[in-house]
Structures are given as C-alpha cells and as structure tokens.
Design brief:
Elements (H helix, E strand, L loop, with lengths): L21 H15 L6 H18 L13 H26 L2
Helix pairs in contact: 1-2, 1-3, 2-3
Length: 101
C-alpha cells in the first residue's frame, strides 16, 4: 500500500526563520506603545499600537493556532498583552490630564 503525503493541516507547526511570530510582535508593539504613550501627540499612535499588541498577543495565545503555521511564543505574547494594556491605561490617564489643561 503506497503512503499518501501528509496534508498541511496534519504537519507540525514550525518556526519561521524569516519573520517574527505573533508573540514577539505583540511584545515589540506593547513595549513601543508603553514608551510612546507618555508623549502628548504620539500617544494617539501609541494607543493604536497598544490595541494591536493586545490583539496580536491574544491571537498568539489562542489554543487552536488556526492563524499561523509557526509556533508562537506565548510568554512574549502574554507580556505584549500586559504592556499593551498598561499603555492603554496610561493613554487614558494622560488624555484626561492633557484635556484638563
């Protein structure tokens, strides 16, 4: 009996050598958004980056892994969600503070 080739869905996920996984992207966006969320006009861009960090982090931690073929770094994804959430809080506090001036 000849062996049939395995489908793409049955093959294990591998790390992609040419790009970042979603967990690393979430961490980079979360750290960058937290750093920029203190600056008055750049905090709007930082807010969008924080939203992306939270979204990428949650997608990377999704248990089925339907979005990507490579194995995401879930620890970095968790830190990306945490830093993105902190950046959102800082954005809200600074936006209220700057609007009161």
């Amino acid at each position: 009996m000849p062996l049939r080739p395995r489908s793409d869905a049955a093959s294990p996920r591998k790390k992609s050598p040419d790009g970042m996984d979603l967990g690393t992207r979430a961490l980079v966006l979360g750290a960058g958004s937290l750093a920029l969320s203190w600056v008055p006009l750049l905090n709007i861009i930082a807010f969008l980056a924080a939203m992306m960090a939270v979204a990428f982090g949650l997608l990377a931690r999704w248990p089925t892994g339907w979005l990507t073929r490579e194995e995401p770094n879930t620890r970095r994804a968790l830190w990306g969600v945490v830093l993105g959430g902190l950046a959102i809080v800082v954005f809200v506090v600074t936006a209220v503070r700057y609007s009161a001036l």
